[in-house]
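Dear all,

This email documents one entry for the complex benchmark we are building for the journal club exercise. For each entry we list the sequence lines for every component of the assembly. Then comes the predicted three-dimensional structure of the complex as a token string, followed by one or two observations. Please use this as the template for your own entries, and keep the labels exactly as they appear.
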Amino acid sequence: MAELKFLIVDDSPTMRRIVFNTLKRLGYAHIEEAEQGQEAMDKLKTIPGINFVVTDWNMPVMDGLQLVQEIRASGEFSKIPILMVTTRSVKDDIIEAMKAGVNNYIVKPFTPDVLKAKIDAILSK
Amino acid sequence: MSQNKEGVITIIETIVNELTILIDEIRPFIEQTKPIDHNHVQQHLDNLVTKMQGLTDKTHLTYELIQVVINSIHSSRNELKKSVDGLLKKTGVQLKKITTTTEEATNKILDVAEELDAEQLVIIEKLDSLKSNNNQEDIIEDIKKMIFKNQDAAFTIIDYLQFQDITAQQISGAYALLSDTEKTLLYVSNLLKEFDFGEEGPEIVLPEIDPKSFNANAIFIDKGNIQNLIDDLFETGDTDIDIPNDHNDIELKDLQASVADSEDDFDIDALFNDNNSGNQASQDDIDKLFS
């Protein structure tokens, strides 16, 4: 895979900043941000080279699950790896996200080690 | 007056009786079979008039009672409206304020943490250049280790700051709940308003929160236990894995795991048992619980 260019999707500016800093610390330099799913779809279409999405679930307008479904249904971006980082931790939610097409799933609060492990796991497949 | 002690129904029943008797008295006269007893008829007519007056008095009294009830309802509605307009809206504003405050505070801490991180790298570079000009390698290595440790600490702070997102979602949940309560109270208030003649109830216009934008069940606890189960699910695809489907179970499971990990070090019962004041937990015990 080419150099990773992340898109962080979260309506919380604080969480975007935390994920941004964690990715930077893990050595990733190319990081874009979006506040919700619709903005994320717009950025995928307008910013070239985004090849990894880290998304929250609970967001206004278009939530993370809808975003995953939109991305998987789109021809152009359907293969992009998606990591969901969310507070939702009940089994039904996790299975729903899995069926929608997320590649891996992290429950907040998370540590940088967990984020790194999930990114590595996704990229190794 | 004795009539005032009677209920309206009793008065009406008496009037009906009087009318029945009166009709019976008049009927022979109408049928011309019996001469009319004027005194008897007059007596019943007098009774009827008295009862009719009693009915008027009683109706007036009933109206006054209804007025009291209407005034009471009006007063209650005003109190309800004051409560809706005041307390609940203030609570909503306060909750929003908490979110804004924690957001600002969190970002200030993030500013410091980012500066700390950037400065650490500069110091490490300077120490490296110093190393080439001196033989104090051990000391320099120690300093570097300390700086790296500080850097880790800065990132630990950043990790912990995820609390802001979680509390914000909890607060949004509380606000949505209050908003629903407010809608219900306004609806009841508008129903009561029907008792006021010629007045229309206030229009229900409340700020909406997108229910997709928060998870009211968000909790800030170490999710290591659940994360391991999720990892198994994604690795194996086995949906029968025992991940709790109830928020309380998740909280309990992770708290139990957390306590089990550290139960050798302290007595959790002593920490939470209010009845055992002689065995209160020390700050060290509390620190161990949250460490």
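Observations: The helical segments of chain A are 13-25, 37-46, 64-73, 91-100, 112-124. Chain A is about 45% helix and 20% strand.
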